[in-house]
Structures are given as C-alpha cells and as structure tokens.
Here is the input.
Amino acid sequence: MVLVYQSNDSKNSEAENEAPKNAPMRNSHMTPVFREQYNAKEPVDIIVNSTSFNDVATKIVEIPQIENIVTKPNGKTVNDSDNETLSIYMRTFLKEFEEANKFKGTEFEANINVSDVLGGVARFYEKIRTTVEYKGEHLLRRNAIERILKRLIWEKDKLKPNTNQEKMATSLVKELIWAKYIPNNEISTGKVNDVRATIEKYLNILEGLDNYPEKVSVNKARLWIMGVASSEIEDLLDPSQRDLFVKLMYLWLCDHSQWNDKGVPDHEKETQIYLAIHRAFTRSDDPTMRYYLLLREIPDWNVGGSEVITKFVLNFPKYYNEIESHLNFKNKLTLYRKILKHSSSFEILRQVVLKNINNIDELLKDGKKFDGEIREVCEDNYKKITKRVNTGIVRSIVYIFITKVFLALMMEVPFEVYRYGDIKYIPLTINIVFPSIMMFLIGISIKIPGVKNTQSIVDRIMSIVYTAKDTKAKINFDSATGSAFVKTFGIIYMIIFTIVFGGISSLLFKIGYSLIGVMVFFFFLSLVLLFAFRVRYYAQSLKVEVEKEGILGHLFSYLSLPFLNLGFILSRGLAQINVFTVLLDLLIEAPLKNMIELFEEWIGFIREKRQEVIEVPE
Here is the structure.
C-alpha cells in the first residue's frame, strides 16, 4: 500500500512525502491507520492532502478484491465478495476490532471471584457516595478507581512507603467488583497483573517526578497524573474497546467534513476533532482525554518500560502544557455541538456490534436483519433512558434537599435569628420546597425519542456501514472558529444577566427575604436548573435532529441561561469543597472497605479449611 501526501510546499521532496512503513506516527488515530490494513493483491492508493483539513479526508482511488479482511471467531474467513458493500471505515474497524478481541490470556488463568455476603454494603455505600458527589453515571467507575487509588497510595500527602503493588491491584479490582462497576468472576488474574504493572508504572513516575510546569503546584500535578492512571486502569478493565469506536467515527468524519480555516494548524484541527468525538460520543472527561492524548504523544505508553517512564518524567512540563493546550482550545464547545448530533448513530452502532460480537460479519451481510437489530437496540435504549431520567431526577432532588437542609442549619437560620431575632418561615419554606418542585416539573416535561428518531438513526448507520448508501454529505466546521459578533453578544448577555438577577432580587427582598436568603435562593435555583438540563441532555442523547423550540422555549432559555452558568460555577466549586465527601472518605470509606476485605479473607480461610476436611482421604 502506498500513502501519497499532496502538499503545496515545493520544498517537500517525493521521498519526504512517502510515509515510512514502520515509522511511529505522531497522530496514531489519523488517516494513516489505513497503512498495512489490507492484505491486497494490488496496491491501494490513498490520497491525503496536508494543506487543509478538508483534504485530510481520505479518497479511495482504487479498491481491488481484498481477501481475509475479516476473520470470524470460528477461524473461517470472509472474503471481499461477502462484504463488497461495506464502507472502507467499517472494513478498517472490523479488522482492528477482530485483532483487539483476540484472546490474549491463557486457558488456565483463574478469574477473580469475591464473596457477595458484604457486597450489598459496598454497593449501598457507593449509592450514598454518588448521590452526595453528583457526577454523570458514565464517570462513576473512573472516579471510583481514582478515589480507591488515592486511598491505597497516599498517606498525608505522601506516598505510602513499602507498598505492595500486587495487593493494591487485587484490592482495587475486588472493590470495583463489590460495587458492581465490573462483573464478578470475569476479570482474570492476568488482567489483575496488568493492573499491578500499571500501578507500579505510575508509582515510579510519582516517585521520580521533580520537574513541574510553571505555575503548576505539586499537588495539582499529582492529581493530573492520578487522573491519567485511573483512566488507563479503566481502559484495561473495560471490554468495550472505546477508542476503536472513536477511531471509526473519526475516520468517517475525515471523509464527511471540511474545515478550511487557515488560522488553525492541521495538527490542531485533527486533535480537536478527535477530542470533540470523545466529548460527544463517549462523553469522556478531562482525565480520560488526557490519557488518550498521551497515547497519541507516546504510542508505547501502555507497553513501554523504564525508558518510556524516564522520557515522560524528564519532559513532563512539555507533555502537560501541550495536552492542556489541546483541552483548552477556545472553540471546543462549538465543535462539540456540531459533532454531538452525529454521535447517537455511532453509539447505537457500538451497542449493536458489542451485542453481536461473535457474528457481526454475518449480521452485516443481512441488511434486513441488521436493520431490525438497530431498531431493537434503539427501543432498549429508550427504556433505559426513561428509567435513568427518573433516577437522575430523584438523585438531584435528594442531593439538593440534603445540601439545602445543611445550609439552612449552618447559615440561614443562625443568621436570621441573630439579625432579626426570629426565623422567617415563608422564605425558608420557599427555599426548601421551590427547588424540588421545579426539578420535578422540568423532569416530567422531558420527552424521550420515538419512532421517527429511530428511522433517522437507521438511515445514518446504513450510510456509515454500506458504501452504496453513503450520501457523502459534508459537515462544515469553519464556523467552529467563532463569530465576529462574539464581543457584542457577550455585552448583550451581560445586560440580560444583570436584568434577570436584579429583577428577581428586588422581588425577593419585597416579600421579606434576607440577604442570606436571597443568596441561598439563587444558589439552589441555579443548581436545580443545571441538574435538570443535564438530565434533559441525557434524555436527548440519542436524538439525531435538533429539537425546535417555540417562543416560550426561547424565552425560558434566555431567562434560565444566567442561572445555568452560575449553577455550573457552583457545581465545580462544590466538587472541590464538598464537606460530605470529605467526611465519607475519612470516617466511613476506609474503615468500611478494610472491614469488607478482612471479612473476605475470613470467608476464604473458612472455605479452604472446609475443603481440607472434605478432600483429605482417610
């Protein structure tokens, strides 16, 4: 296979334009992934123009008969005649997916099996923890891994001496199984050993790190590294092959988008598209994206030894600054919104593939059956969304109520007694009742996608999977660079912000609110709107078309936007200073987990003694 790079730079020689066969790629997720993908009888030329993002999109000049592109789990092969309508994106994905899912362990590896006697206690604790520390459900496992790692590794802001990495890895996996973040009796001892090696790698990094970026504290750098570590461990334990699906969407977008802004370098465009897919498709948080960006910078990161660790430690400021620069791209949210409406189809496709992991090639050959499978997965998702929306509303109400009662007892009531000699019951009652009622009303107004949306998803997936149904419609990213009227809009927004807050404040003071009462009202109103819109966003996560708002909807958006922004700021602040999470960490989590682990060892001891009595011959 030959990769030809077309460039307007006349200084580039033909030798420079031809990519070395085995050279490590800086952008390992870019279009050169096609290199060596196919066992072709004739060469396949892929034209890539490096002068603009539009030309980075791949164009297949010639597609010969290709053999052995997909290998079935039973060892049989599917040749090109069976899959002649599959798109090049799907061919590439299937090849990599099959390689990634080859069994790499040994037949005799045991799986980690834990007792479920006290598992319910661990799960109940996690329910409390996740209610108090409000996070999206897709982030709970990674957050749990990071939290457990911190407890196992740190002691009074210092690394624990003489740590046993094997015991740490086993404890981590067991705790995740108890909390049902990963299934019981499915994680092999070999996988636990991989976790041990990963923990050892990051301990070596933390011990050797003495070179920090400018204006970055030691604690902030450590938290940065712990976030990356938890993401890598989740990637080890997660069988969903997240990044393969991200690459599939990335390759499709390369061929169905254009971004001609010359003010943004091609490398930055490529990286920002990749990150936008992570945000919109897999809903990755910053630590997860840092991990995948690090993989792009250091392709051997997962398998590298002491040389990779030394390289990272010596160049940590460079990697840190470059990764943070990518994450803080000024127009990242605009790009995210453009990609978001395309992510639902890839999410359904991901679920269909994982559901039919052993016969996906056969399913793709039967278009009618594939269509039915897509519709079935869509319906299952709509049911799950309905259930999770209800759960999300309840969690939000509980979180707000607990925090409200705490603030009322600690601030509002003492202030009013001190200032006025009595409690103002009407404002206090409104502050307690109004947020919960508003959350409930917004919750019941949320609409779940239906049949029309399912048909749109089916059509889009068919265009992704099959060449004949590909419309080749282009997505324009040029406006992702912003508008000339941004400053003007910003001034108008500040005026709206002032009018809304000023008007409501004046009304509250007239009905007897104190200054503290007004602050508490705005605090909870902002959090309620933020949580409600997050739940609403999740409910619409599979919507293909953007929902059209009426006049009342637009008016509500204008009035609620200031509160949403305030809620976002408050939510981030609460995540940093949440008193409840600190109390849970210090007073409950460590003793509880130690008790469960001790009980687990006791059960193992009793089981072993029982087997000795039964198995010893007389």
